[in-house]
Amino acid sequence: MKSIDELDLDPIMRSRAEELLARCPWVIYTSGRRDVAAQARAMAQNHLADPQTYLTKTYQYGKVFLAAIVELAPVDQRSVEKVAQTIRAVIQEQPDALVWKHRDGTCVDLQPLEDAFGDPTVKGQDVMRFIQNCPDTVRFIMREGGLRRWHWECRKAPATTAEI
Fold it and tell me: CA–CA separation, 34 vs 9, rounded Å?
C-alpha cells in the first residue's frame, strides 16, 4: 500500500486519486510513477506470473523483451532480479522499445476489488463507477496481459511555463 505522496503523481492524477480515496477509503494504491528500474522490476514480476503472454499482450514490443529474457537469462528465468536486469538492458539498448504511462505519473494501479470469479465486489463497483465517470479518465483496465491488475490512467496536466 502506498500513500498518495509516495505515488509521485502528475497534478491531475494526484487530484483524482485523492478524490477517489476520499469517496472510497477502502482503495489501496499499489503503484504510481516509476523510473526505469522500478518499471523493469514490475514487468519482471508480471512476466514471471504469466510468462507465456504478459509481455506480448501488454507491450507493443513485448516480443523483443521476451526474446531477450530467453536469450540473456536462460538459466535464471525465474529470478525477478535477473529478468528485471535483462529488461533494463533492452531499454538501454533500445530506448524506444518501451513506452509506459507510469513514467510520467499519469496513472495508478489499484488493488483489485474482485470476488473469486474476477467480478467486481460492491465496493469495486463503486470504485469503477467513479473512475468511469471521471472526466479526466483516459483509460481503465482490470487486466494487463491476463493478470488481475486494475490500472487507471488520467490525462496529463498541461505544461507550466516553468516546464517549457
Answer: 10
